[in-house]
Amino acid sequence: MKITVVGSHLCPDTLYALCQLRGKDIEVDFKDLSASLPDLKEYLALRDGLEIYSGIKAAGGIGIPCFVLEDGTKTLDLNDVLGK
User: Fold this and answer.
1) pTM (predicted TM-score)
2) Contact between residue 83 and residue 17 where contact means Cβ atoms under 8 Å apart
3) Minimal CA–CA distance to 43: which of 66, 21, 60, 14?
4) Angle at CA 30, nearest 5°, toward 10 and 63?
């Protein structure tokens, strides 16, 4: 299984998620928003179009890490990813 993780190397939640996924031998494509302006722009467009971010944006949050599964499903819940 391959998972795209959108996050930042500066975010402890992102680092934790990456360690958990790699510990399960899941192929990870990491989009580091702190290191790539194109990835940041792509993420902002994604975030603006998804209902799962409405509460996060209202609270002033960023909403990372975000997980994109092979089938295109997007989630903010690591447990959803680990359970698939």
Assistant:
1) 0.89
2) no
3) 66
4) 55
Q: In whole angstroms, what is the distance from residue 80 CA to residue 17 CA?
A: 12
Q: Where are the beta strands (DSSP E) in the chain?
A: 2-7, 27-32, 66-68, 74-75
Digit-by-digit pLDDT tens for the chain (84 residues) are: 899 999 999 999 999 999 999 888 789 999 999 999 999 999 999 898 888 999 998 899 999 999 999 999 999 999 989 985
Distance CA 80, CA 10 (A): 23
Q: How many residues does the chain have?
A: 84
Residues 6+ apart with CB under 8 A from 33: 6, 7, 8, 39, 40, 43, 64
DSSP 44: H
